[in-house]
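Good morning,

Attaching, inline, the backbone tokens for the sequence recovery test we're adding to the shared suite. The designed sequence is right after.
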């Protein structure tokens, strides 16, 4: 697990849940202040339409859908934080296995090279045979 990633996801999700409840109220309040108050609804709608701003009946659900999307992103980040360590562990196990295999291969090559040198020293093979076998081992 990656605790920092999970924490970031929790923060984003929490902010989205809070925002789902409070952002529509803030948008309504801001639009009322921007257009001069909530006195004449028709005047407010026409001012918003002239400025290209959708009516509040459209803005409020849009902000709530946005908060739902942000909440889903936060949940996705949390899931990623929980699952990401599992892959890291499997990679580290693979890395340890690779290191062990490499060490085993090196030990086996040293053993083979030692046997080859002994065979040359005992006269069991010629120097040319020694060179040919050595090239095969190294490649």
């Amino acid at each position: 697990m990656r605790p920092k990633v999970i924490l970031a996801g929790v923060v984003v999700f929490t902010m989205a849940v809070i925002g789902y409840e409070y952002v529509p109220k803030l948008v309504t309040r801001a639009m009322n202040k921007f257009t001069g108050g909530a006195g004449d609804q028709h005047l407010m709608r026409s001012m918003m339409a002239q400025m290209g701003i959708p009516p509040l009946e459209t803005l409020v659900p849009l902000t709530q859908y946005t908060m739902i999307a942000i909440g889903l992103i936060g949940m996705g980040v949390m899931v990623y934080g929980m699952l990401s360590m599992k892959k890291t562990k499997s990679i580290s196990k693979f890395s340890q296995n690779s290191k062990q295999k490499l060490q085993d291969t090196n030990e086996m090559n040293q053993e083979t090279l030692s046997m080859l040198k002994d065979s040359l020293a005992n006269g069991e093979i010629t120097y040319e045979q020694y060179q040919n076998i050595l090239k095969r081992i190294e490649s």
